From TrEMBL, chain A:
Name of the featured protein: Prolactin receptor
Membrane topology: Single-pass type I membrane protein
Record-linked Gene3D superfamilies: Immunoglobulins
Protein purpose: This is a receptor for the anterior pituitary hormone prolactin.
Annotated transmembrane regions: 236-255
Domain free text: The WSXWS motif appears to be necessary for proper protein folding and thereby efficient intracellular transport and cell-surface receptor binding. The box 1 motif is required for JAK interaction and/or activation.
Key words of the record: Disulfide bond, Glycoprotein, Membrane, Metal-binding, Receptor, Repeat, Signal, Transmembrane, Transmembrane helix, Zinc
Primary location recorded for the protein, binned into one broad class: membrane
Residue intervals of the Fibronectin type-III domain: 28-129, 130-229
PANTHER family: CYTOKINE RECEPTOR, PROLACTIN RECEPTOR
GO cellular component: external side of plasma membrane; receptor complex
Compositionally biased spans, kind Low complexity: 341-357
UniProtKB/TrEMBL annotation, chain B:
Protein species of origin: Zoarces viviparus
Family the entry assigns: Belongs to the somatotropin/prolactin family.
UniProt-recorded name of the protein: Prolactin
A biological process from GO: positive regulation of cell population proliferation
Any one GO CC term of the record: extracellular space
GO molecular function: hormone activity
Entry's localization field: Secreted
Keywords recorded for this protein, A-Z: Disulfide bond, Hormone, Secreted, Signal
Signal peptide bounds: 1-25
């Protein structure tokens, strides 16, 4: 109860005091401030002010001004024309190029307040009225519409006499747009607007500015609607669209028709390896041994019945003198190889033509010597050395088998010891020699066969592989041993049946000195070399066989330090080139690697130092060349 | 022979004379238009300069700045409103313009000198603008000289309004700035007068081209 009373009393007192306070608080007026003064035509001007707080009492304001050259204070002549809190200076009271010092005073019962004085010069505060009589019309220029906007200066501004110079600006926008497009028109009173949207509704406004003054307000908006020229515009677009669609369809159809050609053009097929009988897959997966063996085709060499045209042409020159017998062989694949040195495998090469001449052989011999170095993985070079076996009448054919790395082109032809080999019905001696040759050939070919990765290999038959294998000797250090071993290996082949011991004697017979070229027709499956006499004479071969008829070659001059068999033509001082070095390389497994003999210095056929024939005759008398006696011989 | 040569020579002379007369007579309206553009540029430059200076002007300086009536050109009687201005003859208007322009030749040199060492943040820009002012003033003066030759003898008279300030415009920083500002304000007004007079003249001369005015 008491609380209620106290609350009521407090409330009443509060109300009383608030009512009292508002009523009693009076103060002098707040300081007014002149906001702006403007002259629309440089002839009159108006000043506006903002009054301060009135202090709770009626406050009056007065404007006083003073011109620059006098101290006389004048009061504003007109407070009403320009509205509230304004002072309007008419023409009479306005002077230009004269500074006005203007002050506003607020007065109420309690005091006065003075505003800050403002110095103005009328010419600097010119802000004209907006342009008047803005008209917008649609006009046409060659079928395309445009807007012509025209206006007049504000009527108060005297531009005719040049008192005021006005420049104009207009702005245009479509009704639905938000942004205006501004155009400065300079002093002209007319403007054209192009690039209109057909059927659009435009808004146009204009404003003006004196040369040194403020921009006016924008004039009232003018609306204009552009008529439709829709059809003309659209028909053209329709035509263009149809035409381009048509062209596009044609292009697509052309591309579709030629997609295969295009595909070949853009993505040409990648050529694959074209090795006959070569198994790509094996190459990718297999080891080198397998690849090498894969290159060996089972039915190589082709049988007579099937591959007459692919016969390997081999030249066998067999000479069976009394002492020696040197068989030089050149396997067909040698020719093949050297022929193939530059090009890929030529399967259809008969071989005969390319290797058909002794000149060719000589050239190849030269080449082979050059490239001998380069070959590291040719077929094994079988270096056979003619060995002297006083006891064993076996004749060795020593010759350098050109590595079957035919890429080296090392075909060495030997000035072989020619034996008067008749046809395939040889005397026992001949037979032996032929067999020797066959053996040699097989040796050589087998060596070739075992070379991995040679294209020539693929022509070699599987049968030779056995020879190779059998012939493979781990680290045959001495050619002598090599040869002996090889010979022993081959002894199983038909040779054993031959009375070899008779060979030397037979070989030595001078009656057999007549030389004849024989051509190895082929090597049959039984590892027999089939020989054919060659009719054609040979051309000039430098260093190699030059075999005019009647001359005897295949006299082994000796074996040089590199285990190269040097042959010479009997009676001649110069030797021919031997050229095939063979070394067995146990590292390659079944295959033998060719040893490139350093013969590059003598690109031509091997030139041997002349050796007295007579001196050599003795050791060679048996047809065997002992490597120990080869000191004077040069390598090819 | 001599007679024909003589007639040929006189004909040639006449032709040359006509050509020279035709080529040399540029219409006054064009000349005035060109002069108005020059004076407009001059005033715009001075306005920009004043604004540059005011941006960093010490507020105290405004109070003690000398009154514009103390400009050295205030002795020249110029019209104070439109009626008075429109009553002045063309030659008088041109004479007034030329006198005013002439009066500012020396003060501009003083302004340029002092602008070199003016203690103001925008000193470099101010100095450049002063240089421009001098160039424009000179070219306008030349143009007005040409004009005066075509507008009668009244245009030839130039009132002398000597500048007594010398090249020193102040001892200390504040006085330097104040005097610089004062001089510039005087120049601003005078350039506006010149511009106004020339534009009145332009409109008067272009009676055939109402769109000019």
């Amino acid at each position: 109860m008491m609380r209620k009373v106290i609350a009521v009393i407090l409330l009443v007192l509060l109300l009383f005091f608030t009512a009292h306070s508002t009523g009693n608080l009076h103060s002098p007026p707040g300081k007014p401030a002149l906001t702006s003064c403007r002259s629309p035509e440089k002839e009159t001007f108006t000043c506006w002010w903002k009054p301060g707080s009135d202090g709770g009492m009626p406050t009056s304001h007065a404007l006083y001004y003073r011109k620059e050259s006098s101290e006389t204070v004048y009061e504003c002549p007109d407070y009403h024309t320009a509205g509230e809190n304004s002072c309007f200076f008419n023409k009479k009271d306005t002077s230009i190029w004269v500074n006005y010092n203007i002050t506003v005073v607020a007065t109420n019962a309690l005091g006065r307040a003075f505003s800050d004085p403002v110095e103005i010069d009328v010419v600097y505060i010119v802000k004209p009225n907006p342009p008047e009589k803005v008209t917008v019309t649609v006009m046409e220029d060659k079928g395309w519409p445009f807007l012509r906007v025209s206006w007049e200066p504000p009527h108060k501004a005297d531009t005719r006499s040049g008192w005021i110079t006005l420049i104009y600006e207009l702005r245009v926008k479509l009704e639905e747009d938000n942004d205006w497009e501004m155009h400065l028109a300079g002093q002209q009173k007319m403007f054209n607007i192009f690039s209109l949207r057909s059927g659009g509704k435009y808004l146009v406004e204009v404003r003006c500015k004196p040369d040194h003054g403020f921009w006016s307000e924008w004039s009232s908006t003018s609306y204009i609607k552009v008529p439709d020229y829709f059809h003309r515009e659209k028909s053209a677009w329709i035509l263009i669209t149809v035409f381009s669609a048509f062209t596009f369809l044609i292009l697509v159809w052309l591309l579709h028709m030629n997609r295969h050609n295009l595909k070949h053009c853009i993505l040409p097929p990648v050529p694959g390896p074209k090795i006959k009988g070569f198994d790509k897959q094996l190459l990718k997966n297999g080891k080198s041994n397998e690849i090498c063996s894969a290159l060996v085709m089972p039915d190589f060499p082709p049988t007579a019945s099937s591959n007459d045209d692919d016969l390997l042409v081999e030249y066998l020159e067999v000479y069976i003198p009394g002492e020696q017998e040197l068989v030089l062989e050149e396997s067909k694949d040698l020719h093949h190889g050297c022929l193939k040195s530059e090009s890929s495998t030529s399967d259809s090469d008969s071989g005969r033509g390319s290797c058909d001449s002794h000149t060719l052989l000589t050239d190849k011999c030269g080449e082979a010597k050059e490239e001998r170095r380069q070959t590291d993985q040719g077929c094994s070079q079988i270096r056979t050395e003619a060995q002297r076996r006083p006891k064993d009448a076996l004749t060795y054919a020593h010759g350098d088998v050109v590595s079957s790395n035919m890429s080296s082109g090392r075909v060495k032809t030997w000035p072989s010891v020619f034996s008067p080999l008749p046809r395939y019905s040889p005397s026992p001696l001949d037979q032996q020699s032929s067999l020797q040759m066959a053996k040699q050939h097989s040796l050589s070919t087998s060596s070739y066969l075992t070379q991995p990765g040679h294209s020539a290999k693929e022509a070699l038959g599987q049968s030779y592989r056995d020879f190779c294998l059998s012939g493979k000797q781990p680290h045959l250090l001495t050619p002598q041993t090599l040869v002996s071993r090889k010979l022993q290996a081959h002894s199983d082949v038909n040779i054993s049946s031959i009375g070899l011991k008779r060979a030397p004697a037979g070989l030595r017979s001078p009656a057999l000195r007549t030389t004849e070229y024989v051509e190895v027709q082929r090597v049959n499956n039984e590892d027999m070399v089939l020989l054919q006499p060659v009719v054609s004479g040979c051309g000039r071969m430098e260093g190699c066989f030059q075999v005019p008829q009647g001359e005897v070659y295949s006299k082994v001059k000796g074996v040089d330090s590199d285990n190269v068999l040097l042959l010479q033509r009997e009676g001649m001082e110069e030797d021919r080139c031997p050229c095939v070095d063979q070394e067995t390389n146990e590292g390659t497994g079944n295959c033998h690697t060719l040893n490139t003999v350093s013969n590059t210095r003598k690109p031509s056929a091997c030139i041997y130092t002349a050796m007295p024939v007579e001196d050599e005759m003795a050791p060679i008398v048996n047809g065997y060349v002992d490597s120990a006696n080869m000191c004077t011989l040069h390598t090819c | 022979m001599a007679h024909s040569r003589g007639t040929n020579g006189s004909k040639l002379f006449t032709i040359v004379l006509y050509m020279v007369a035709a080529c040399s007579s540029i219409p006054i309206s064009d000349l005035l238009d060109r002069a108005s553009q020059g004076s407009d540029k001059l005033h715009s430059l001075s306005t920009t300069l004043t604004q540059d200076l005011d941006s960093h002007f010490p507020s105290t300086g405004r109070v003690i700045m000398p009154r514009p009536s103390m400009c050295h050109t205030s002795s020249l009687q110029t019209p104070n409103d439109k009626e008075q201005a429109l009553q002045v003859s063309e030659s008088d208007l041109l004479s007034l313009a030329r006198s005013l322009l002439q009066a500012w030749e020396d003060p501009l040199v003083a302004l340029s000198t002092s602008a070199n060492t003016l203690p103001h943040p925008a000193q470099g820009a101010i100095f450049n603008k002063i240089q421009e002012l001098q160039e424009h003033s000179k070219s306008l003066g030349d143009g007005l000289n040409v004009l005066s030759g075509k507008m009668g003898p009244g245009a030839q008279t130039i009132s002398s309004l000597p500048y007594m300030g010398g090249n020193e415009i102040g001892q200390d920083r504040i006085s330097q700035l104040i005097n610089f500002n004062f001089l510039l304000s005087c120049f601003r007004r005078d350039s506006h007068k010149i511009d106004s007079f020339l534009k009145i003249l332009r409109c008067r001369a272009a009676k055939m081209l109402p769109e000019m005015c």
